Amino acid sequence: AAAAATAAAVLVVVVVVVVVVSSSSSSSSSSSSSCCRSNTVAWGPDNSVNWTTCNQRCPGNDFQICGANETNHYFVIKDVGQPYRLDCRDMVLGAVLTRALIQNSTTGEANVVNCSQVAGGSCADSWLEIGDRCYRFFPERASSPSLMCNSIGGYTAVYETPQEAELVQQTIQDTPTLAAVDKWLFGLFRHRETGSKVRTSNGAFVDQAFRSKVEKVYGYCLAHRSSDVWNISSVSCGSVPYICETGPDYLGCYKTPPTSKRSYILYKDNTPLQCKETCKGVGTPFAALEGSAACYCVEETDLTKASSETSCTKTCAVGQICGDSTETTAYRLVVIVVVAIAVEVLDELVVEIVVVVIFVVRVVVVEVIVVVIVIVVEVVIVSVVVVVVAAVVVVVVAEEVVVVVVVIVVVVVVVVVRVVVVVVVVVVVVVVVVVVVVVVKVLNDIAPFFKFCIGNISNRV
Predict the structure, then answer these.
(1) 37, 71, 229, 245: which has the fewest Cβ within 10 Å?
(2) Which chain regions cross the lipid bilayer (predicted)?
(3) Do 381 and 317 share a structural domain?
């Protein structure tokens, strides 16, 4: 017991000494305005180095500082001397959703801001909510940005409207860490086998505003400047930072639905756009791609999450992510089911419009032409008859019987010609009606095949 008591007393003394020494060291460091120390000299405020020496980025998150950039210096966690964040977005990108001192870049004043409110509630950590979508910015390079984005449940960012592009540009400009990057690779690219066609990574339509900007930009991967999203140039696919995006339309990687639970459509060169548009016409709320040839139109209850997002890394023939041999890349179509219903109505409306147009054309154009022809023919005939009668009367003035006969012949000829014209008109009208009926029947039979094209048009509208 005596030995135990003695040991306890010694332990207490040691702890007290350690606490005193630690407190002294802490006091010394708090008087410093730096956060970097040299490990080749004694500890103390006089041995600190400039803050810029401590600018090594973390390997797991490029938006966080993890120490010195030289082996003979080390990083002190205490924030004394460390520059304040200039924007909450820097904190969100670093997955730090907390209250922080944010320095106003104009006035230099620092205020406490709750950065968790800036992050929004619908995006995961390190993703910025812009509009109704989530974006993640990667300042580091990757040999295949599209596969990197796919591995975290997204795709390289696609700006489907000029408004979306401008929102992203504004966010980049308002975030110092992002604005410092010169170019960002995004989801607009040219496929290596069909280089003349510009495509998007998520299968969305290429907005005309972007299409006009890249018509003369040659290269497989495209990037835009931080200061101007419309300033687009070709880059080496792994040479610049990139932006990932996810949104309500992209669900992620799922197991291939069972045969009894899916509507199977086979295409030679399948794409996310083609599959999604097809399923809109079918009327299902989800579209799923398996490899480069299979498109499934399924219900929500038919989808089972795959073991990992990296299971869906197979690319379509056009370079977009299309699932794999046993997994599918799924897209939500709930928002567009109304369009699919509208397509059915649009099919019928197109047929009705065709009938009305043809009827109007027949009534207006054909009848006008017929009337004109009749009038011209009658005028010609009457003119000829008058000339002939006049000539006969002049030649045979004395023969009254001859004059009467000539007049009767002229009348008969006029009547016969009129009857012939009427018969011709009737035949023409019958032919036109038959053609109209045939055309309407053909259009009605092939109308379902127009759904894909009509769906595209209605979507763009």
Answers:
(1) 71
(2) 381-414, 419-440
(3) no
Residue 185, Cα to own-chain centre: how many angstroms? 15
Sign (positive or negative) of CA dihedral 178, 179, 184, 187 = positive
Residue 220 has pLDDT above 70, yes or no: yes
Residue 396 falls inside a structural domain:
yes
Top-confidence residue, 431 or 100: 431
> pLDDT for 33-48, tens place per residue?
345 555 555 555 556 6
Examine the domain organization and report whether 155 and 242 are in the same domain. yes
Query: Quick one: pLDDT at residue 334?
Result: 39
Of 112, 234, 119, the closest CA to residue 171 belongs to 119
Residue 403 falls inside a structural domain: yes
Read off the CATH number of the domain in which 146 is found: 3.10.100.10
The domain boundary residue, chosen from 190, 224, 246: 246
The average pLDDT across 401-428 equals: 71
Which of 312, 332, 352 terminates a domain? The answer is 332
One domain, residues 137 and 205: yes
Domain count for the chain: 3
**Domain assignment of residue 439, given as a range:** 342-460
| Secondary structure of the chain in HEC code, one letter for each residue | CHHHHHHHHHHHHHHHHHHHHHHHHHHHHHCCCCCEEECCCCCCHHHEECHHHCCEECCCCCCCEEECCCCCEEECCCCCCCCCECCHHHHHHCCCCCEEEEECCCCCCEEEEECHHHHCCCCCCCCEEECCEEEEEECCCCCCHHHHHHHCCCEECCCCCHHHHHHHHHHHHHCHHHHCCCEEEEEEEECCCCCCCEEECCCCCCCHHHHHHHCCCCCCEEEEECCCCCCEEEECCCCCCEEEEECCCEEEEEECCCHHHCEEEECCCCCHHHHHHHHHHHCCCEEEEECCCEEEEECHHHCEECCCHHHCCCECCCCCECCCCCEEEEEECHHHHHHHHHHHHHHHHHHHHHHHHHHHHHHHHHHHHHHHHHHHHHHHHHHHHHHHHHHHHHHCCCCHHHHHHHHHHHHHHHHHHHHHHHHHHHHHHHHHHHHHHHHHHHHHHHHHHHHHHHHHHHHHC
In a domain, 35, yes or no: no
pTM metric for this prediction = 0.48
Both 363 and 421 in one domain: the answer is yes
Residues 128 and 236 in one domain: yes
Please tell me whether residues 456 and 347 are part of one structural domain: yes
**Residues present in the chain in total:** 461
